[in-house]
Structure to design on (392 residues):
C-alpha cells in the first residue's frame, strides 16, 4: 500500500497545517506524533541543524483505515528525552507537547534546556494550540492521572517532578518535587491507575524513584529501586500490579539490554525480574489491556557512521504478559533509529516511529502478534515522541 499523503494546506494563527478529512466522528482513535527538525540524531549523537524548518506534529485518526492524517507545523518538540514528551488527556480532548530544548541563537551549535509545555485542543478542526504553561527545566516524560485531574512532568535538567492541576484546558502547577540531582536526569514518570503511586526513571543515576500520594500531595520516597542499565521509558500496567522500565545500558554498544519488572503489590515496590529486549530500547509501550508490550530497539543503528558496530536496521519486539513477567513473541526488522511506539486506544493497531526515514509504520494486532499493514506515512520532520488517545 502506498503512503497516505496530505495535499491541502491552510493557515491559522501561527500554525500551518496539512489537513486531510479530520472526521467529525465521535469514535476517533487518535495518535499524536511529535516531529523534530532542529536536531539530527541520524549520525550518532544529536547535532544542531543549521536554519531548520519548524518542528511539527502529525495526528493520525484511526476511526477508519487507513488513518486520516493532519500535519501541524510550528510546534516545538524534541528528540531529546523519552518519546513520552507528548501526552494525551484520558478524555481524548487535549494533548500536551513538551518543548524540552531550544537553540539559543541562529549561530548556536548546541542546545539549552527549555521549559515550555504547549496545550493542544484535539477537537478543533484542525487541532490548535490553545495555551502554554511553564514547567521546570527540560520537561521530558509526562503522564496524566487516570481521572485526568492531574499531570506529572519529569524535568530532566532540574531533577524535579512538576505536578499540575488540570481544569479544562487550564494547567496550574501545584507542586515541584525534587527526586534527584539534575546531573542524574529524571527522564520519565508513570502513574498507577488509582493515582496513589508514581514511578520516575532516573537515567544517569541508574535507579527508579517512587512517589506516594498522601491525600494532599505527592511525596518522594527515600529508597532507590534498583533496576537494569540506564532506566528511561517507564510504565505501570493497567491493573497497577507491575512497573516496567527499559534500561538503555551505556547506550552506545551492541550488547543486549533488558527491561526491569517492579512488583507493586507489596508495601514497598521491588524489582523481581529482568527481560532481555535488545540493544538500546528507546521506548516501550503497553497495549490498552496490558496484555502485550511493544519495544523498539536500536540494535546498533544509532551508532555514528563509520563505527564498525553500526548496523542499518533496528527491531520491533513484541512480548506477551504471563503472570508477573513478559515473554517474547516476535522480533521484526524495521528501519534504523526508531524512536517511539504506541498502540491505538482500541488496541487494533500499532504505530512505530522511524526517525532515519521520517515515517510512521503501521502494524495490525492479531492476538499476541502483529503484522505490517504496508502503510508507511511520511512526516514533516524526524519523528521523536508519540502518544495515543483513549478508545472512544
Amino acid at each position: 500500500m502506498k503512503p497516505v499523503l496530505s495535499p491541502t494546506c491552510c493557515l491559522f494563527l501561527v500554525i500551518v497545517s496539512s489537513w486531510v478529512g479530520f472526521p467529525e466522528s465521535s469514535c476517533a482513535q487518535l495518535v499524536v506524533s511529535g516531529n523534530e527538525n532542529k536536531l539530527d540524531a541520524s549520525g550518532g549523537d544529536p547535532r544542531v541543524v543549521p536554519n531548520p524548518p519548524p518542528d511539527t506534529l502529525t495526528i493520525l485518526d484511526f476511526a477508519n483505515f487507513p488513518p486520516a492524517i493532519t500535519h501541524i507545523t510550528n510546534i516545538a518538540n524534541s528528540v531529546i528525552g523519552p518519546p513520552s514528551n507528548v501526552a494525551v488527556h484520558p478524555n481524548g480532548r487535549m494533548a500536551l507537547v513538551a518543548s524540552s530544548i531550544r537553540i539559543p541563537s541562529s549561530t548556536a551549535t548546541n542546545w539549552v534546556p527549555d521549559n515550555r509545555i504547549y496545550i493542544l485542543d484535539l477537537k478543533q478542526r484542525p487541532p490548535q494550540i490553545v495555551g502554554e504553561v511553564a514547567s521546570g527545566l527540560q520537561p521530558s516524560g509526562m503522564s496524566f492521572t487516570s481521572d485526568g485531574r492531574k499531570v506529572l512532568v519529569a524535568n530532566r535538567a532540574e531533577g524535579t517532578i512538576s505536578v499540575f492541576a488540570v481544569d479544562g484546558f487550564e494547567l496550574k502547577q501545584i507542586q515541584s518535587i525534587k527526586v534527584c540531582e539534575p546531573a542524574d536526569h529524571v527522564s520519565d514518570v508513570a502513574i498507577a491507575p488509582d493515582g496513589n503511586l508514581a514511578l520516575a526513571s532516573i537515567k544517569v543515576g541508574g535507579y527508579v524513584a517512587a512517589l506516594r500520594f498522601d491525600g494532599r500531595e505527592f511525596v518522594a520516597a527515600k529508597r532507590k529501586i534498583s533496576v537494569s542499565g540506564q532506566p528511561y521509558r517507564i510504565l505501570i500496567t493497567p491493573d497497577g500490579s507491575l512497573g516496567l522500565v527499559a534500561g538503555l545500558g551505556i547506550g552506545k554498544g551492541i550488547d543486549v539490554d533488558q527491561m526491569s519488572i517492579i512488583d507493586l503489590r507489596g508495601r514497598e515496590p521491588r524489582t523481581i525480574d529482568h527481560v532481555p529486549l535488545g540493544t538500546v530500547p528507546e521506548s516501550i509501550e503497553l497495549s490498552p489491556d496490558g496484555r502485550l508490550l511493544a519495544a523498539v530497539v536500536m540494535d546498533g543503528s544509532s551508532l555514528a557512521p563509520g563505527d564498525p558496530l553500526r548496523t542499518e536496521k533496528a527491531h520491533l519486539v513484541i512480548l506477551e504478559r504471563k503472570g508477573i513477567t513478559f515473554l517474547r513473541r516476535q522480533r521484526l526488522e524495521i528501519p534504523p533509529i526508531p524512536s517511539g511506539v504506541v498502540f491505538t486506544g482500541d488496541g487494533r493497531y500499532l504505530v512505530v516511529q522511524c526517525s532515519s526515514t521520517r515515517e510512521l509504520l503501521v502494524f495490525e494486532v492479531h492476538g499476541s502478534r502483529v503484522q505490517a499493514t504496508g502503510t508507511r506515512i511520511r512526516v514533516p520532520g524526524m519523528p521523536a515522541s508519540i502518544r495515543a488517545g483513549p478508545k472512544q
